[in-house]
Amino acid sequence: MSYHPVASSRDLAGRHVFQACLLGQDIALWRADDGTVNAWENRCPHRGVRLSLGVNLGDRLMCRYHGWRYDSGSGACSHIPAHPEGPIPATLCARRFPVIEAGGLVFVALGDDTAALPTLPETAIPLRALPVGRPAEAIAAALAGAGLAAAGPLHFAETQGGATVHLLIQPASGTTCVIHGLADMSAEALPLQRHMSRLMESRRRAWEARP
Amino acid sequence: MGFKMTETGGIDPDTWNRWHVVGCHDELPDDGARATRLLGRAITVERRGSGAEVRLTGGGALPVKVAYGYVWSSLGTPGPLFELPEHAEADRRNLNGCSFFVRTSPPRAIENFLDMAHFPFVHTGILGEEAHPDVKDYDVAISTDGREVVASNCHFYQPKAAAASTGGVDVTYRYRVPHPWCAILYKDSPAKPGRSDVIALFVQPCGEEEIVANLALFILDDDTPLPALRRFQQQIFVQDKPILENQMPRRLPLYPRADSPVRADKASIAYRRWLRQLGTSFGVLS
């Protein structure tokens, strides 16, 4: 399985739980106080409530519904308030996905048999992520058709405002995607971020326009 | 069985032939019919004095019954509706506490109604508090005639058990589930020791993943003004609604190991077993 970008590192703010979708799989992303990034199926194993409604306790995630707590890293359930004396079944665990943080983005793979990460610039600033109501493959074809250099099936690069800009496409569902941009740090950040924001908005309008 | 599912549009016979709630009688408009949905079909509900008329939109009249303050209808040939004798007790106030549209399946709403373990986390400071999260053992059974699930001897510490409560108490609950989408709660009355307030959840199955949840009150409380009673029920239900709308999958899984139940979930386990016995396929995943 390939790694796909699902969030910017800055989306995983302290004590927050971020919701992402990859290939139709709902994912809860959260950063523990020690920096560990967790990517879990967005569903409490107990009764199926989205864990992204839960509370990031710093080292554990607490489900909103019954207060069950799951440990950062292992995903193991470590507390069931309804039965404080236990025992907790050893198999009771949040379903985890492989996750890597690189270049200011967070990448998740849906299987354990993971392929290599895309090659990214060593120092880059993330641009505003752009959700698009079109499938990832259609956006990849459109970017290739616009002459952008392909660095992978869902990874393109272009030069804008004197900087190299990487565009990585997150296949969110069968009909939607999110474009994550990374800009080379050699450029001054704010003017380039504004330029890319306008450029990507106008591209999105064209992509989403019905023929 | 000789029953053809095609006659019921794929809906299981138990669901097809039951009475289902389609509205609160008092709250129907004074003039004209109200459009709503029942088991995926568009219907209209119209008040006719103390009775009502229910029709498939652009089609024929459906069976109709007014009971417990609500209008009930059916797509099939319904038998008797379950008994709720407390409704007729002269000293009770009977009213619709609130009605909410919820994007979930009918059985998810019932299961949540039967669940005590969420009180400290979802209804914090009202029906529970985090310092008292433990669920003591209780009794659950499917009645010998198979007609309902009963949970009894349920004890839970509640900071504000009812609109009329003045402080925290250990309350005793008893639940009846006499219909796949209707559950009735008997709860110690703060006003009349030894008797129970009755709170019922009547779920209108608009579709497999869309419902109207009606909270019906049959309570021993002559003093709390109506707006305060309604506000109390609404306050609780708006806490449940985001939970229900974020349960995945929306339909209740009946297959083994879909969820991870613990002892506190005995009522849910019995309820799911009962739905399997009834052959319910509407709003569930088998």
TrEMBL record, chain B:
Keywords: Oxidoreductase. It comes from the Bacteria. GO terms for molecular function: oxidoreductase activity. Signal peptide: none annotated. SUPFAM superfamilies: Bet v1-like. InterPro entries: Cholesterol_7-desaturase, VanA_C_cat. Residues 103-278 form the Vanillate O-demethylase oxygenase-like C-terminal catalytic domain. Pfam families: VanA_C. This is (2Fe-2S)-binding protein. It comes from Zavarzinia aquatilis.
